[in-house]
């Protein structure tokens, strides 16, 4: 898994293998967020399998799923609320792109500076310009 740090609280990646969740816990992650729909691909673990692997590693599993291009305000608001908890979060989807865009939208809702968000996303290899225009 190639973990990309967006800020001091949030990291993202493509979907980790079930066995990789323990390493996230060892790195201080407290909450793991899945941003892909269940059964997005045939070989994806179910949400129940993900929750078991994450829980077994001592973290909390949260699903905020949406398909590519289908992020809605309720997704951003749910992630923004999670960020306000102050817990260290690792979010994932198929490539990390949805998770990065969700982080940007939620961070905007929480009052983050857009230039800093853009810089962090670019450093991680993602384009959040569409989110910054919307939020």
Summarize the structure.
With 135 residues, the chain is an alpha/beta fold. It has six helices and five strands; from the N terminus they run E-E-H-E-H-E-H-E-H-H-H.
Describe this entry's structure for a reader.
- This protein has helices at 21-26, 47-56, 73-84, 97-109, 114-124, 129-134, and strands spanning 4-5, 10-14, 31-34, 60-63, 89-93.
- By secondary structure, the protein is an alpha/beta fold.
- Strands 1-2-5-3-4 form a 5-stranded mixed β-sheet, sandwiched between helices.
- Strand 3, helix 2 and strand 4 form a beta-alpha-beta unit.
- Helix 3 packs across helix 4 (97-109) and helix 4 (97-109) runs antiparallel to helix 5 (114-124).
- It starts with a strand and ends with a helix.
- The mean pLDDT is 96.
For the structure shown, list the relevant keywords.
135 residues; 5 strands; 6 helices; alpha/beta
């Amino acid at each position: 898994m190639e973990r990309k740090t967006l800020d001091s609280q949030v990291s993202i990646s493509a979907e980790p293998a079930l066995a990789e969740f323990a390493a996230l816990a060892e790195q201080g992650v407290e909450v793991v967020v899945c941003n892909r729909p269940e059964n997005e691909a045939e070989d994806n673990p179910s949400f129940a399998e993900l929750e078991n692997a994450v829980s077994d590693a001592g973290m909390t599993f949260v699903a905020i799923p949406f398909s590519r291009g289908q992020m809605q305000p309720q997704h951003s608001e749910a992630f923004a609320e999670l960020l306000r908890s102050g817990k260290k979060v690792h979010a994932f989807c198929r490539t990390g792109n949805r998770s990065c865009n969700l982080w940007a939208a939620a961070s905007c809702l929480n009052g983050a500076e857009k230039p800093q968000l853009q810089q962090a996303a670019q450093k991680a290899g993602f384009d959040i310009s569409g989110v910054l225009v919307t939020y």
